[in-house]
Write a structure and sequence with these properties.
With 45 residues, this protein is mainly alpha-helical. It is built from two helices and no strands. The longest helix has 19 residues. The chain is elongated and about 50 Å long. 4% of the residues are buried.
Length: 45
Amino acid sequence: MEDLRESMYRAIELYGLLDSRTIYISEQLDKLVVKEQKKYERKPN
């Protein structure tokens, strides 16, 4: 996840916030974050 985050920061610096390459990397990072968060989701008793 850290590698993807660094890649996103580099893309922001190179291409800007609204470039499709930056957005694609951001979406991939979002998916990974959601997947990790689901590991800690509370289960109903």
